[in-house]
């Protein structure tokens, strides 16, 4: 379907089902139960899952295919956010022009940075992109304050012109972002017994865009262009010696992945119209590298998984505090309870970085191919077991020789 | 590759499905009918405490969290009741808020606007918080205040000292008990005049965000009115931890006063650097070199140790105050945690109490009813003397303390001494004062 082979089609369909039913899948625990702490099915986090999924998919087009490790991708995300918020301030609250502008601006910015950075490869390329991103971050903080509003972040005000919309609604508040009247924040709550599921308009917009972005990434991966990028990864020198200029290909990959980042930034601003400079900080750039590696660089679905994994930790584990722990372990005797809480304490709340770091190390050491490799191993193990079972049933299979 | 054949029937079918998909969310929104966002329906009500647990303001955040836990305990009838006994309004019964048990969720703002908003959003969307409070940075406070306005919940600002929080970025759903940069300037200027005279040259180092900018503006305006000159204003990044490169140029600038518009870990580091460079022993223009820290706190004094001795600044509240409210608060905080509370803890505790009281008086958790109850509310017994929540900008007006690092501290908590209590009348300003102009409260938003 859609020009994909059977395997890719089924993967696209699986991703589509997962994203569309995410409100159910991410809310497995009843609202009142103690495990509700681990529910992730609320609009803000679901939006983050898919938005960072887009970001990581785009990053993977560059890193996974060409092997160029960019340490400055957050700059494009930030630029996209700022352009989107400016569209909300100047044009109106419809998200379409905002998202379009953020993709275009991020693309132009990527063209500029890519043109300079891609003169070098390997570590030098990484350092150049890192330098550019930090430069953008510091500029956003200092001299560009009139455009970016510095550390406070760019926000909407009641005085913004919004030529195609209204500066303020009838009841005197700032209008909200919408898609032709459909408010991005509007949420329908479905209560099924003790469970509560939230369906958010903004999430579904992001999810549909992510599916489109995912589809596009599959097509790029399977195209001759994608093959050329893989060739760059395996041996760029040999390609150059055969008389082939690889620069246009790498630059195109860089710009495409920059536009993906811009799209993610624009969507972030569309869901929550605020843009802060810390979105461009090197830690944010590092985060997308972590997402891609954690999920599995060079695989299609890996970056999306990695993005979900990291955002889950950031938002769920950082919210667990000692009080919550005490309620969980209240069944233990007093001394035991305190001891258990004491042991777990460094890994939750503000210690979520530690938990994530340990998991990241484990994944990189034992599953160098990321979460995708983990999935493949489980699948392999299951099929081997199945083969063994059927093998027993049908008698020993003969070796080839 | 699979074949993709288009028939009339298929187009119609997929068109209908797509149409239904687009229409679905709109059908859903029409059916959700609650009076306001996160209306508490069960036997409990959830408050969201959003404080910095990591980053330069983590110490303040930890103390804020302690104060919130204490406030919740008191509201639910536990402990000794603290300032509930001295509060001039007697609406609170110690049985929760409107009979509902108070529960809370916590989150980490990381002192970043983005992270703070994400954390506040999850409190509102996932945990059903009906009020968000906390924060130890004005950038964060302004960002979260904007979010709460959009989402339709009340925001009770924690420690935020920027003029903009209740100035150009004020919001109808947001309230601030803490004082601000203008008040610091107005309170400090007379004291500085008496101490250092009217012929001084000041050099500003400023944390580069909304709070730093407005405090720098306020202090510069107040000191220039005394006759001081301002030779330079240098912005430093909030994330900076080493200020030596910023201190060195001060030595050759001809300035004889250094104003540190820094707070928390920033101030501890910049003051330590300044002392290490020997600024305090220097004599410039025939006068002793002086350092001023306009916004002071005990936690910072503790962090900077010996270096704070004799350095002046202003503060919202200090635990050595001898009024009944402060004594009651220090007692119950000290009993629970073993040390006295900071000003951040005080303002957060008071904000929680004021919110609970406003709900109790309004008889409803509806944000618009709470806004009405808080606007123009006059109260006493919360440690700052008679206080007014001004309706025009949702800013509290009360006395401001000018403090000094103590020369001979008697304990590890006795680090500051109150030099002067500046009366409320001296720090008041018109709601349309140029430093606060340009904003608009808008209308209260109950959400849903």
Commentary on this structure:
The complex is a heterodimer of chains A (401) and B (448). With 401 residues, chain A is mainly alpha-helical. Chain A has a domain at 6-281: ABC transporter involved in vitamin B12 uptake, BtuC (Orthogonal Bundle), CATH 1.10.3470. Chain A is 65% helix and 5% strand. Chain A has 16 helices and 6 strands. In chain A, the strands form 3 sheets. Chain A has a two-stranded antiparallel sheet with strand order 1-6. Chain A has a two-stranded antiparallel sheet with strand order 2-3. Chain A has a two-stranded antiparallel sheet with strand order 4-5. In chain A, a hairpin with a 2-residue loop joins strand 2 and strand 3. Chain A is globular and about 70 Å long. The two termini of chain A are 40 Å apart. In chain A, 48% of the residues are buried. With 448 residues, chain B is an alpha/beta fold. Chain B has 2 domains: 27-179 and 319-393, Rossmann fold (3-Layer(aba) Sandwich), CATH 3.40.50; 182-315, Rossmann fold (3-Layer(aba) Sandwich), CATH 3.40.50. Chain B is 39% helix and 18% strand. Chain B has a 7-stranded mixed sheet, with helices on both faces. A 5-stranded parallel sheet of chain B has the order 2-1-3-4-5, with helices on both faces. In chain B, helix 4 links the parallel strand 3 (131-134) and strand 4 (154-157). The radius of gyration of chain B is 24 Å and the shape is globular.
Provide the fold topology:
The complex is a heterodimer of chains A (401) and B (448).
Chain A: H1 6-20, H2 22-25, H3 43-66, H4 74-90, H5 95-117, H6 122-141, H7 145-148, E1 154-155, E2 178-179, E3 182-183, E4 187-192, E5 195-200, H8 201-222, H9 224-241, H10 247-271, E6 274-275, H11 282-295, H12 302-316, H13 322-328, H14 334-344, H15 352-366, H16 370-394
Antiparallel strand pairs in A: 1-6, 2-3, 4-5
Helix pairs in contact in A: 1-8, 3-8, 3-10, 3-11, 3-12, 4-5, 4-10, 5-6, 5-10, 8-9, 8-10, 11-12
Chain B: H1 8-31, E1 44-51, H2 58-75, E2 101-108, H3 113-125, E3 131-134, H4 138-151, E4 154-157, E5 174-176, H5 181-196, E6 201-207, H6 210-226, E7 229-236, H7 244-251, E8 257-261, H8 264-276, E9 283-284, E10 287-288, E11 290-295, H9 298-304, E12 312-315, H10 324-337, H11 343-362, H12 367-374, E13 378-379, E14 387-389, E15 396-397, E16 400-405, E17 416-422, H13 424-427
Helix pairs in contact in B: 2-11, 3-4, 5-6, 8-9, 11-12
């Amino acid at each position: 379907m859609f020009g994909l082979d059977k395997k890719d089609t089924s993967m696209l369909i699986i991703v589509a089902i997962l994203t569309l039913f995410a409100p159910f899948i991410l809310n497995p625990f009843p609202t009142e139960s103690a495990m509700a702490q681990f529910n992730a099915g609320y609009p803000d986090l679901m939006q983050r899952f898919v938005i960072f999924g887009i970001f990581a998919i785009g990053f993977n087009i560059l890193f996974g295919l060409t092997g160029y490790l960019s340490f400055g991708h957050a700059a494009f995300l930030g630029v996209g956010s700022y352009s989107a918020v400016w569209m909300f301030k100047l044009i109106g609250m419809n998200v379409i022009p905002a998202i379009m502008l953020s993709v275009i601006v991020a693309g132009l910015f990527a063209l500029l940075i890519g043109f300079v950075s891609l003169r070098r490869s390997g570590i030098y390329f990484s350092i150049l992109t890192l330098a550019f991103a930090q430069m953008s971050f510091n500029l956003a903080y200092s001299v560009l304050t009139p455009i970016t509003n510095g550390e406070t972040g760019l926000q909407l005000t009641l005085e913004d012109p919004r030529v195609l919309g209204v500066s303020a609604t009838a009841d005197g508040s700032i209008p909200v972002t919408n898609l032709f009247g459909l408010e991005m924040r509007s949420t329908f709550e479905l209560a099924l017994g003790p469970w509560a599921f939230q369906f958010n308009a903004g999430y579904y917009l992001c999810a549909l865009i992510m599916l489109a972005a995912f589809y596009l990434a599959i097509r790029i991966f399977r195209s001759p262009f994608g093959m050329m990028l893989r060739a760059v990864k395996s041996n760029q020198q040999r390609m150059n010696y055969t008389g082939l200029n690889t620069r246009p290909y790498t630059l195109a990959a860089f710009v495409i992945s920059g536009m993906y980042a811009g799209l993610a930034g624009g969507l972030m601003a569309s869901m929550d119209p605020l843009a802060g400079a810390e979105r461009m900080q090197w830690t944010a750039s590092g985060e997308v590298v972590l997402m891609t590696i954690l999920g599995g660089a060079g695989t299609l679905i890996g970056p999306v998984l990695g993005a979900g994994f990291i955002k889950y930790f950031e938002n769920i584990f950082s919210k667990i505090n000692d009080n919550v722990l005490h309620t969980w372990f209240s069944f233990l005797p007093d001394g035991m309870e305190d001891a258990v809480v004491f042991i777990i304490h460094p890994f939750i709340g503000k210690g979520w970085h530690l938990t994530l770091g340990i998991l990241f190390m484990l994944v990189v050491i034992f599953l160098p191919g990321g979460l995708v490799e983990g999935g493949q191993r489980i699948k392999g193990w299951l099929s081997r077991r199945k083969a063994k079972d059927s093998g027993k049933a049908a008698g020993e299979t003969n070796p080839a020789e | 590759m699979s074949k993709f054949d288009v028939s009339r029937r298929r187009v119609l079918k997929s068109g209908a499905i797509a149409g239904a998909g687009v229409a679905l969310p709109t059908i859903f929104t029409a059916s959700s009918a609650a009076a306001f966002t996160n209306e508490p329906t069960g036997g409990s009500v959830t408050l969201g405490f959003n404080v910095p647990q990591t980053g330069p303001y983590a110490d303040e955040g930890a103390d804020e969290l302690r104060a919130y836990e204490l406030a919740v305990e008191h509201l639910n009838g536990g402990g000794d009741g603290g300032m509930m006994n001295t509060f001039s309004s007697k609406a609170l019964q110690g049985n929760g808020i409107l009979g509902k048990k108070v529960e809370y969720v916590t989150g980490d703002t990381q002192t970043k606007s983005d992270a703070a908003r994400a954390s506040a959003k999850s409190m509102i969307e996932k945990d059903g918080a009906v009020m968000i409070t906390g924060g130890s940075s004005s950038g964060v406070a302004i960002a979260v205040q904007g979010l709460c306005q959009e989402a339709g919940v009340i925001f009770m600002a924690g420690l935020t000292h920027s003029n903009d929080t209740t100035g150009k970025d004020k919001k109808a759903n947001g309230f601030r008990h803490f004082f601000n940069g203008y008040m610091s300037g107005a309170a400090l200027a007379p004291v500085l005049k008496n101490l250092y005279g009217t012929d001084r040259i000041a050099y500003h180092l400023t944390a580069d965000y909304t709070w730093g900018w407005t405090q720098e503006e306020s202090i510069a305006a107040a000191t220039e009115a005394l006759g001081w000159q301002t030779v330079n204003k240098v912005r430093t990044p909030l994330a900076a931890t080493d200020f030596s490169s910023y201190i060195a140029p001060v030595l050759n600038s001809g300035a004889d006063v250094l104003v540190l518009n820094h707070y928390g870990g920033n101030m501890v580091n910049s003051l330590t650097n300044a002392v290490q460079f020997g600024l305090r022993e220097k004599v410039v223009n025939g006068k002793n070199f002086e350092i001023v820290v306009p916004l002071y706190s005990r936690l910072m004094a503790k962090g900077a140790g010996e270096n704070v001795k004799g350095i002046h600044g202003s503060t919202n509240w200090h635990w050595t105050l001898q009024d009944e409210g402060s004594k009651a608060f220090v007692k119950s905080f000290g009993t629970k945690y073993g040390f006295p509370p900071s000003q951040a803890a005080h303002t957060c505790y008071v904000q929680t109490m004021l919110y609970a009281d406003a709900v109790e008086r309004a008889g409803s958790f509806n944000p618009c009813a709470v806004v009405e109850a808080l606007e123009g509310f006059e109260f006493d017994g919360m440690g700052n003397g008679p206080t007014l929540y001004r309706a025009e900008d949702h800013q509290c007006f009360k006395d401001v303390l000018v403090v000094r690092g103590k020369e001979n501290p008697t304990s590890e908590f006795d680090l500051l001494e109150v030099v002067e209590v500046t009366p409320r009348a001296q720090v008041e300003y018109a709601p349309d004062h140029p430093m606060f102009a340009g904003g608009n409260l808008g209308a209260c938003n109950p959400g849903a």
